[in-house]
Amino acid sequence: MQDDLPQRSALNDLMRECFRLNRSLLDVSQRLTEGTPLTGAQWGVLTAIAPGHGNQEPGTVAETARRMGLARQSVQRVTDVLAANGLVEYLPNPGDKRAKFVAVTPEGRTWLTELEQRQLAWVSDLVGQHSGAEIDTALRLIKDVRARISRQIAEDRLDELSA
Fold first, then answer.
1. SS3 letters for 17-42?
2. Residues 126-141 as b or e (16 or more Cβ within 10 Å = b)
3. How far apart are CA 100 and CA 59, in angstroms?
4. Per-residue model confidence as pLDDT tens digits over 65-120
5. pLDDT tens across 9-26, in order?
6. SS3 of residue 8 by DSSP
7. d(CA 74, CA 65)
8. Which domains does the chain have, with CATH numbers?
9. What is the pTM of this model?
């Protein structure tokens, strides 16, 4: 158990830094959406709904929530606001009358394109500091840790760890 102390300490540091990174990314999304009809949260949901962002066909709110790793209810609230503002629309779902498909409207695509351009300009300023290999390594590590945590949650293994 003591043999892996440096790795455990480093992983704890990484997780704490991920929390801080998440806070910074939320702040940046709010800044990038200034002057648009979207909040950072709405932009995130609109991106997840749009084809080419993890999905190819219109999906339901529940499918979007699963892709985002969020609660369906929170995604539903945001999607309802997007629909009220004409940025997404609900479409009939022949397989389920209650769970409608959600699609981005032309106006929603316009704002999504604008925000993607803002994001690309911002990311371009950051990317020069790190090589593609460094970024790929960090991405693989974070995806692996996230997948392991998801498995622990799915297997209800966290309860036995906290007992």
1. HHHHHHHHHHHHHHHHCCCCCCCHHH
2. eeeeeeeeeeeeeeee
3. 8
4. 998 889 999 999 999 999 999 999 999 999 888 899 999 999 999 999 999 999 99
5. 888 999 999 999 999 999
6. helix
7. 8
8. 2-162 (1.10.10.10)
9. 0.81
